[in-house]
Structure formats: structure tokens, C-alpha cells
Amino acid sequence: MSSPRSEVAAAAAASLERSDVGAVRATIGFDAFIDSIIHVVDQRFDMTPGGFRRIETIGGFAARAAAAAGKSTNLELVTIEQRFGGNGPLMAGSLGRLGASVLYIGAVGRTDAPSKLHSIYEEFAGRCRLVIPVAPPATTDALEFDDGKIMLGKPANVQSVTWDLLKKSIGLDQIIEHVERSTLVGMVNWVMMGGVEGIWSGLCDEVFPKLSNAPGKRVFIDLCDPAKRTDDDIRRAMKLIRRMNDQVPVTLGLNQAEAERIAAVIAVPAFEESDNQTLGSAIRSAAALIRADLGLDCVVVHPREGAAAASASAEPAWFEGPFTNNPRLSTGAGDHFNGGFALAQSLGLELSQCLAVGCATSGAYVRDAASPDLRRLIEFLRALPPGESHT
Questions:
Q1: Which one-letter DSSP state was computed for residue 36?
Q2: Which end of the chain is more exposed for a tag (fewer CB within 10 A), N or C?
Q3: Within 13 A of 166's CA, how many CA atoms are on the CB side?
């Protein structure tokens, strides 16, 4: 006997099969990072490349670092691989792999020639309709553990991406034409990019008022871990996003920690302790409270166990995701959720189905260590594994 969860997943799969995914035209920007996927050595058995046991948990890493207080220590980092990264490229790559028509604008250029594509992004560019480099990428050391990851970002290069640079590199008329032809505009990584607010303002002042079909589009925004930004920074960003929503419907994507921070800053009673509240109902309630207070079209919150969303036109929904304790790759899981959810939303799927598609896109990605194509996503939805308990 099928469960409500499996019925939603099956309905989402059927909706995707009926949809013209290629009709979704997405313009995504503006960051880019070269990610080094790293294991931290716990103990070495020999000096061969794989002759070590890694530190498996963030707690174990923290304990090793804390033990060095007042002394010193040497932690060996083993680079497993380098791959293209950045919240924008990972979301855009996910959309392109699923079959959407993607334009990416961002810091994917060579250091010596910022308008030329960096070689590490050649595979990414193959997923996109068009890629416009405007600056060189930043770098991230991604320390991977079984229970999460620690991202050590070096974002200096992406600070050059500003509204003035975009207008100089692309031209205002061309920017307007690109946005006019897009059904989805995705803008991520406000946290690490000082120029993002200027880009938001530039779009509101110089682009959105000139569009013939602004209400028929959708903007997707992910702040990307605002823990280090001040409350005043967050309030200012929320004001700009609300202003944008007055012109084009905005979806704000948050993980649980981000949602907790936003709720605290805007002083809504989300995530309050309750003996009778399940995680799903708590996250669903939080999404609804944050959306209502900010006045946005949609807010989606995705903890590791699943995702909830609230929109102006539908009842809040929760979907239990296919969480696994043994991901092959976790860096980029949230960006793949964003790609799947935004694609489903652009196709007009019901809110619960959008959540299922987002969770399944992320779930397939962490199991395969590769972005799923549309066929893999549909198969995964139809055979959606249950979420595992945290170990």
C-alpha cells in the first residue's frame, strides 16, 4: 500500500514526464568557486596517497583542534579532487543537467583573462545554453565529514562582481534582453559577495520596470549561510528582497540554520520548543511565519531530513526527504535542492511536488556524486528511498 509521501513523489515524477523542461529558461548568477574536496587525516598507516584513516565527524575534527589550544598541531589535509563549485554554478549545473535552458553569468573566467572561460568550468559550460564569464573564480577548501562539511572560503575574487561590472561587461540592453527571455532568475551567495545588493537594486531600478512580463517570471534567492553577517545586514537584505518581490515573485530558499537566524532577526515566533510538534510541522510553520512577515511570494526551508514551503497561493507543505547517513558527496546538496525545487516551481507543479523534486534532486546527487539528469530524477522519485535516522 502506497504512502502519501510516495504518492506525492509519483505524482511529481508524472508531472515532470508531462512537462516541457526545456521551456524553462533560467538566468543564474553570479559567484563561482573552485572547490577542493578534502579529507582530514586522523591517522596514517603508510605514506601512500590512501594510507590513512580520516577524521569522520565534525565533532572529531573540533575535538582535535580544541586539543591544540595553548599548544599547536599539524592537521594533514588530503585533496580528494578539485571540481567546479560556487552556489550559482552548482544550482545552474543542476538545472542544465535536468534539461533547462541555462544562461550563467559570473566569476567563471580565467585569472589572466576574466572574460575567457576557466578550463575547470568547461564541463559545466556544456550543461548551459550560454556562459558569460566576468571575473575569475574564488576558491574553497571543503572539509568533508560523514555528518556535514566545513567550507573554508577565500572569496576575494568574487568581490569584483558588481552591478557596474555587469553593465560594463554585458551591457544594460543585453541584460534586459536576457532577463526578458528568462522564466527564472536565480541569485545566490549574498553572504560572500558584497556586490549582490547592488545587483538586486540595479535589477529593481533598471531592468524589472522595463520588462513586458515581469509577473510571469520568478526570482529565486539563497542567502547562503548568513551566520557571519550582522542583524542590520540581514534586515537590509530582507528589505531589498521585499522590494524585488513587489516587481517579480520571489522565492527565498533557506536551510534550517539560515531560517532560524532569519526568524530571530525579524522576530517571528518560529522554532519555539513544543512537545507536540514534529520536525515537519515545525519547519512548515516556520516557513509560513517567515513568508508572511517578509511579504514574499514563497519561502522554502530545507533541513537535512526534508523540506517545507509556504507560498501566497497554497497551503504550507512538508515533504520527508531521502536522507542518507552515507553520502558519496555532500558539498552542493543544498544547491541541487534549489535547482530541483526552482525547476519544478517554474513548471507550475504543486507545492508538495516541488518539495519532492527538490529533495529527490539532492538525494540522487549525494548518492551518485553527480548531478542527476531528468531520467535519473524521475526514476529516483518513483523508487524514493525512506529517510534514514541520524547516526
A1: E
A2: N
A3: 28
The residue length of the chain stands at 391
> At residue 41, what are phi and psi to the nearest 5 degrees?
-75, 130
d(C-alpha 191, C-alpha 209), whole Å: 26
Residue 331 and residue 346: Cα distance in Å, rounded? Answer: 25
Report the alpha-carbon distance of residue 60 to residue 62 in Å, rounded. Answer: 5
Is 363 part of a structural domain of the chain? yes
What is the C-alpha separation between 309 and 352, in angstroms, rounded?
A: 8
Mean pLDDT per block of 10 residues along the chain (391 residues) reads: 88 97 97 93 94 96 95 94 91 98 97 96 96 96 89 91 97 97 96 95 97 88 92 97 97 95 93 76 95 97 95 95 89 94 97 98 96 98 88 63
DSSP code of residue 390: P
Tell me which residue of 236, 301, 298, 297 sits closest to 271, measured CA to CA.
301
**Three cell numbers written together for 207:** 531592468
Domain that holds residue 157: 4-39+82-382
Q: Residue 217 is placed in which grid cell? A: 517570471
CATH code: domain of residue 310: 3.40.1190.20
Nearest CA to 359 among 324, 390, 328? 324
Say if 51 falls within a structural domain: no
Contact 314, 306 (CB under 8 A): no
